[in-house]
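Quick question: what would this complex look like in 3D?
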Amino acid sequence: MSGSFYFIIVGHWLSTPPVFEMESLPAEKAESKDDHRHLNQFLAHAALDLVDKNMWLSNNMYLKPVDKFNVCFVSAFVTAGHMRFIMLHDIRQEDGIKNFFTDVYNLYIKFAMNPFYEPNSPI
Amino acid sequence: CESRRWRYGGALHAREVGASGARAKVSLSAFALLFSELVQHCQSCVFLVAELQVHLAALGRQVGAHVLDALVASEKGAQRETKVLGALLLVKGAMWKAFGKEANKLEQANDDACTFYIIGRQPLINTYISVPKEDSRFNCAGFTAGIVEAMLTHSGFPAKVTARWHKDTTLMIKFEEAVIA
């Protein structure tokens, strides 16, 4: 059971680089990470359409897993300012992911309140 | 000119967020001082009164962009708004509370479905700014208009907000066509 995660924060305009990107792979996976990284980015962005569609359906910020690709689940969290947090994960773990999203959201708010932070710029 | 404006705008919205957050209260005099400095600084950059409002609105927009998430989070039980009316109510309630009390009225124009008005006094903004007689059309509500515009636009409802001055301050909010349809 692998516990690899890939987390990305996407802003409003896709032409700029993503606001934040982080991945964690389990220790035993020694394969080339580059392949996976491209694939992960591709999956995350492909899921954005679904996220946008689901965004308007519910008031919640946390959207349940919105997509599934082979073995990866894609979960999303949309903030009030329409910043999208996307997470690719292998294990189905909704509560943990939701707590993680909430923590990241709190951190993001504190970070974004900084007046010198340009919205949508890379962190 | 630009960089000083940035710094003032930044310090100001840090204050405002501090004032709206449940934990910290900011002293009124500090806010008044900062805001008056802001207005004076904008005045030194422009020649016309109308431009002054434009500059204030631009600054307000920056504040609004940063403050939106913080406001929603500090408001207990508030969710991300998916309807236009919800977003407007958030503006009317939460944001105006940061400046004092809730706004008085939210109305929709009769002839145009895209236009809304928010009417209310702005205790903090206008109290400490004295307007000379020749500039009687001038209104610091341009700053608030900028904040509202940024909050609405970043919530996914693009709009243009202008400030007018009757007896009370009136903010005219005009949404783009796609939002109402």
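Answer marked as accepted. Chain A has one domain: 5-113.
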